[in-house]
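We give this protein:

***
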Amino acid sequence: MKKIAKFLLNTIPRPLLINLSIFLRPLIYLFFKGTKFTDPIDGKSYRKFLPYGYGKQRENALSPGTLSLERHRQMWLYLQNETDFFTKNYKVLHIAPEQEFLRRFKKMDNLDYTSADLYSPIVDIKADILDLPFENESFDIIFCNHVLEHIEDDQKAMSELYRVMRKDGWGIFQVPMKNSLEKSYEDFSIKNPKERQKHFGQYDHVRWYGMDYFERLKNAGFEVDINFYSKKFSKEEITRFGLMINEILPIVSKK
């Protein structure tokens, strides 16, 4: 199973995998149906989650139904348990949206939801994060997950996100992080995809973020909550939901 999963993940683009999972969802659910793991996004339980990783694979990381990873399930639980995101009227900007989130958020009547990306064919607006085509203070909530590690001038991108966020707005800006690093590791002279994967974990990444990520966000104007949200759950819940205990949920706000 590990070899098959690794082959598929490294061969089939993730958007196509998600589309296939939606089409094959009834069969997938029957095959993986069980009680050990629960995906909070679709509310279904499974006998196992799938391994995931471009290099070293993590066990029980990928939900068979939604193809969500640990970070997606942690974010969903936070939104569900700690916010009024699912009930209050909000104007939301989602940069490079995760397909499962996009599909669900667009159906929510309480949200004025806009998705944006420079290359994705499924978003509402084609937009460069370095020069967003929105007026100042346009959005109550902004999601920008696993985007900034692709951007050399991430400070400019953060400043743009700050500009279009309304006062008293908030957002979630997840990035690949190594908590053991005090300073982010970046080297823009590394252009070769194989070398980038070797240095930064993925062929199109330009850095590994360290704990100075939060100072970068503060430099752009944000208030920052370094939130280890999964630690609020018991060990049994962490296993059942397939969470990472030391994964930080970066929550930003504009005062």
Q: What stands out?
A: Residues 70-82 form the longest helix (13 residues). The chain has two domains: 2-68, 82-228+246-253.
